[in-house]
User: What shape does this take?
Amino acid sequence: MSFVYPGISPIGIVVAAVIQFAIGFFWYSPMTPVGRRWMQEAHPEGLPARAGGEMAIFPVGSIMAAWAVAMVIGWAHASGPVQGALAAWVVGWAVSAQTLTGLVASRDRSVALGVIHVGYVVVGYGLMGVAIGLIG
Assistant: This one.
């Protein structure tokens, strides 16, 4: 079994990962209304001093997510940006369901924080699917 489905470009996976990471940068940025709300919900006392170091793991997660989306797109035989986005949203909604459950139910976090994370996943995965659908 190949680690990249035939017809899916590794370049498309990297581009999709960069897009998702960039969306996260702006989504959670204190320059945006969503980012300010996230900061209030997730870190009411302010970010810890070493928050920058923790961000180093997110590009790895973005590449893994883009690879998973690419595999689902390949397995679904989706082609083009629209079908790519639809296949990616299947993955995104599945991840979102677990994200919301984990944040709200198990960790006693607010629903607003869960909705912020779900929004990021749904938008990010959809755009990853578009990128992979366009690039191949």
User: Anything to note?
Assistant: The CA atoms of residues 85 and 129 lie 4 Å apart. The chain has a mean pLDDT of 83. The helical segments are 10-27, 33-42, 51-54, 58-75, 80-106, 111-135.
